[in-house]
Each structure stands twice: as structure tokens, then as C-alpha cells.
Design brief:
By secondary structure, the chain is of the alpha/beta class. Helix content is 38%, strand content 21%.
Length: 535
């Protein structure tokens, strides 16, 4: 990190930087939410569902195995429960069924007259044709990119459709499910506390990494507030477990979302839906214990697989393609992200099965469009999909050498610029400039996340006065840092790096307030440390 690559930042400069993120619309509130009818096909879908309810038709909800799909499924199931109308729901199994509405999933379909997808379905052309052939009406609610050919469906609610007048494209599946519930509430003329549904929506917005601007920010703020006071058994049970009554976006993103995701990664996401939909505290406790066990297993598996993957890296390729026999498919995406960050290279992690098929995920790094460069290798792949930053793929083991060569060739000839600076660093700050005024200012722009990252600072030529390990596994570091006579505490999580007392370093970090035993101090939550170039 070069200090010259970043401007100096004061409190006033920081305020201007943060203000600029919201200059287009400012801070929206719930009163600014567009009407459900602004979605293309919302009224058509609503009318069809109302008819199904009035005529006693059988309805099946089909969700997805990530947090967005799980919460969207839970929302729909909760709504139909509130109006005492029985529906079936299916969450595809990641290992058996693959993603979303599929021919495999249709084999498990109970007798039904109407299928409603949440957080999936927009790319299910083949399955959509099969549903049509069965004489079943299909309503698709999704937020993913549109394929060249859309599935046949009675109605498609997706804001990315060019003819959809809804003003915001970047919303998640649970938000669209919430809007569908609001539309159904209005059409049925019933009273319903929509804020009770907003708490789950906030989980999905954060977990699915939606931009925390415009209506997304308003819905997250309202959802987190309601989540903190929620009386739903699953939420109260989780609050007791973590001994917290108030939730922030970081509580969701780093703890609750991975916990919910662990069910789909390690076994079946239906366990997460069962937990969120628990109607008694006892039922919720059983569900939580099951998720905690899955999450512990996920952490162990992820850690072991990461070490195995790192051992394969030779440093020769610009795109890392790492393969292991029987590597757990549920964590390959997480491992790819970890290895990519450690080696600062796009990374693909593949699990080789006994039948010779390699299946896995990739994560990009820096300016690389991983989807684009992998597209050049389609002829070598069995299946492939994703976007710029993340992909899923499968290929035969005999094609691995050619694939590794082809994707590195595609990367080299794409001439991606290497970023010389971290885009999340807002500027250089001396430790004496850090203050509670600055943390108070930053609180005004919460919650932080995609499109509104928490400000990261860089301080150069800082001396390490003290350093010690902490945590039960000794994988966190605690520092005392000094610059110009000012000393501050810092922490660096999940690292086995070693640093010497007296070393001069450049450090990037987020500024936070540490509340401990009634006192509040400033603390640096450290991201990166490099040895200062002192001449």
C-alpha cells in the first residue's frame, strides 16, 4: 500500500465522501417504497393466486437453498399460514437436485395446480416447458439475470425485465416475495402486519449482498429494528443463544446468515426453513441446535479444505484451478473466496467425484470478469453459469489440463488492469485524527454493505508497541499501535501471521468503538498489515 495512492482524510472530507453515495436519492424511508403494482405481472400473478385460494386449488412454493431463497420460502409459507390456507413447499437439495426449479425437482412435486417460485425460476426453461406440459400454471418470482429465452409461465415477476416499470432492479428474492404478499393482502382485503415480514426480508437483503442504498437501505433499517424486538420463536431463541437483544448488519452478515446457510451447504436447506418457521420455543430450540451442528461441521470442513487447497498453489498460474477428490461441494465457494483473497488471484475450487466429473465454484479477484474468461472455455465444460464475481461449473476430469491452460490464456489476453489501491480505503489518516466525532458521523450512514462499504482507513509508519494472540484457537491478534505519541488498540481476526514488537507498519482498518465493562474506547479492526518502507 502506497500512501501516495490515497488522499488525506479529515472528518469533513469523510462526510463529503459518504454524502456522495446518497446524492441521487438521499435517505429513503418506508413511505418511499413503490407500490406492488409497479412490478410487471404482479397484478396478473395476484389475481391467479386469489382465484386458486377461492377455488381451493393446490399450491406449491419452490424456493432455493441460500438465505434469500430460504427466507422467501418462509415468508410465503408464513403468509399462507396466516390466512389458514394449506400449501406445500420444496427447497431443492444442493447435492441431489441442483439449483432452483428443475426436472429433478419436478419428480418430487406433490399433486398441484399452481407453482410459485421464489428466488429462482427465471432460467428454468426446460422445467418450465415440463410444467406447462403437465397443465400446471407457473408463477415465477425472481431477481436474477434474464436468459436469452424465458421459461413459459403464467406470470413472471422480475424487475430486470426491460418492460418492468419497477424503479429498482437490484432487489433480492425475499423482497419480491414480500411485495407479492403485500399485493395479495390488498387483493384479499385482509389485515396483516407487513412489518412482521420485514424482519426476514432484512436478513435476505444483507445475506444476498444487495446494494444498501435506496429502498434496500430503508427496508434493512426497518427490518433490523423489528428483528430486535421480534417475538417469533426462532428469533427469540437465537437472541437467547447469542445473548443479544439488538442486531446490526454485521450480526446478520457474519453470524446469522452463515448459520442459516450451513443447512443447505452441509445437508438440506429445509432445516433452515423449519427453524425460521418454528411455532414454539421448543421447536425453535431443536432447529437451532441442528443448525449449530451444521455450522460447526461447515467451519471444520471449510478450514480443512482451505488448507488442502492452499497446499496445491504453486504460484505459476494467474487463475488458480485447484482440484481434490471428494472435496465437499457445499463449501467450495467459500474456500474459493478465501484462497482468492489470500493469493489475490481468481480461484476455482473443484471437487472430483468417483465418476470422473469435477464440479465446483469460482470466485474472482480484482478487476477480473471471471464469467467472461470462463465463457471462452465453454467447449470444455459440462455445465456453467454465474456472473462477473462468482461462477459455478462442472467438467470431465480429462478436460482439466486443457481447461486450466485455456482459462489462464483467456485471462492473460484480457489485459485486466491490476488495481493499485484498495477501493474501500477512503484515505490516509494519522492516528491523532481519529475520534469519537468520526465514529458518530459514520453511524449516520449505517447500515454498511454492498455499494455503501464501511469506510476503511490507511495509517502509515505506525509502530507496534504490543502484540499478542487471543481467542480459544489463538487465531486472532491484539495490538497496541503508536504514531506520533498517540496509542490505540487494534485487533486482527482469523490470522496466523506473526509480527514483531517495534516493527514499523502500514495498516488498513475500520474504525470502531469497543464497549467493555462500561467504558468505550476507539479500536482499529485491522484488515491488512505491511511493513513500512522507511528510507
Amino acid at each position: 500500500m502506497k500512501q501516495t495512492a490515497y488522499p488525506s482524510v479529515t472528518r469533513e472530507v469523510l462526510e463529503r465522501i459518504l454524502d456522495a453515495r446518497f446524492e441521487a436519492e438521499g435517505f429513503l424511508s418506508l413511505k418511499d417504497l413503490p407500490h406492488p403494482s409497479q412490478f410487471k405481472d404482479m397484478e396478473r400473478a395476484t389475481a391467479r393466486i386469489v382465484t386458486a385460494i377461492e377455488q381451493g386449488e393446490k399450491i406449491t412454493i419452490i424456493g432455493d437453498y441460500d438465505v434469500d431463497g430460504v427466507t422467501a420460502t418462509t415468508l410465503m409459507h408464513r403468509f399462507f399460514g396466516a390466512i389458514a390456507y394449506p400449501v406445500a413447499w420444496i427447497i431443492p437439495n444442493r447435492f441431489r437436485d441442483g439449483y432452483g426449479l428443475s426436472l429433478t425437482l419436478l419428480e418430487q412435486l406433490p399433486p398441484t395446480d399452481l407453482i410459485i417460485t421464489v428466488d429462482n425460476g427465471i432460467a428454468a426453461v426446460e422445467a418450465g416447458r415440463a410444467v406447462e406440459a403437465l397443465g400446471i400454471d407457473l408463477i415465477i418470482t425472481d431477481h436474477h439475470l434474464l436468459p436469452d429465452t424465458l421459461p413459459p409461465a403464467y406470470a413472471i415477476i422480475n424487475p430486470k425485465q426491460p418492460e418492468c416499470p419497477f424503479p429498482y432492479e437490484e432487489v433480492c428474492g425475499a423482497q419480491i416475495a414480500w411485495y407479492l404478499i403485500a399485493s395479495l393482502k390488498n387483493a384479499l382485503g385482509i389485515r396483516l402486519d407487513m412489518m412482521g415480514y420485514m424482519e426476514l426480508v432484512s436478513l435476505a437483503i444483507i445475506a444476498d449482498m444487495m446494494p444498501l442504498q435506496h429502498i434496500n437501505r430503508a427496508m434493512v433499517i426497518a427490518g433490523l429494528r423489528h428483528l430486535s424486538g421480534s417475538q417469533h420463536p426462532a428469533i427469540t431463541c437465537y437472541k437467547e443463544h447469542v445473548n443479544k437483544s439488538h442486531f446490526t448488519e454485521e450480526d446478520i452478515g457474519f453470524f446469522l446468515a452463515p448459520l442459516l446457510n450451513s443447512a443447505g451447504r452441509m445437508d438440506d436447506a429445509s432445516h433452515a426453513v423449519a427453524f425460521l418457521g418454528a411455532t414454539t420455543h421448543h421447536e425453535a430450540r431443536i432447529g437451532l441446535d441442528r443448525l449449530l451442528a451444521f455450522n460447526d461441521l461447515r467451519k471444520e470442513t471449510e478450514s480443512a479444505l482451505t488448507q488442502e487447497a492452499l497446499a496445491q498453489v504453486t504460484g505459476e498460474d494467474e487463475v488458480l484451478v485447484l482440484v481434490g477428490e471428494g472435496w465437499h461441494e457445499g463449501v467450495v465457494g467459500i474456500v474459493a473466496a478465501r484462497v482468492a483473497r489470500i493469493h489475490q488471484k481468481p480461484t476455482i475450487i473443484l471437487s472430483q467425484s468417483p465418476n470422473g466429473l469435477c464440479k465446483g465454484s469460482g470466485r474472482s479477484f480484482d478487476a477480473c470478469d471471471l464469467f467472461a474468461i470462463t465463457s471462452h472455455c465453454r467447449a470444455l465444460l459440462e455445465k456453467f453459469g454465474g456472473h462477473e464475481a462468482a461462477i459455478g461449473l462442472s467438467l470431465k476430469v480429462e478436460n482439466l489440463p486443457a481447461f486450466r491452460e485455456a482459462i489462464n490464456h483467456a485471462y492473460t489476453h484480457s489485459s485486466y488492469p491490476t488495481q493499485q489501491c484498495d477501493p474501500e480505503i477512503v484515505g490516509v489518516v494519522e492516528l491523532r485524527e481519529l475520534s469519537f466525532e468520526m465514529t458518530t458521523l459514520m453511524k449516520r450512514y449505517e447500515p454498511y454493505g454492498m455499494a455503501n462499504p464501511r469506510p476503511k482507513f490507511l495509517s502509515c509508519v505506525v509502530r507496534i508497541c504490543e502484540v499478542a494472540t487471543m481467542g480459544s484457537e489463538g487465531n486472532h491478534l491484539r495490538f497496541t499501535l503508536e504514531q506520533g505519541g498517540v496509542r490505540l488498540r487494534g485487533v486482527k481476526f482469523k490470522t496466523y501471521e506473526q509480527f514483531e514488537v517495534g516493527a514499523w507498519i502500514d495498516v488498513s482498518y475500520h474504525l470502531s468503538e469497543n464497549h467493555f465493562q462500561g467504558s468505550v474506547t476507539l479500536q482499529l479492526v485491522i484488515d491488512t498489515i505491511s511493513i513500512s518502507n522507511i528510507e
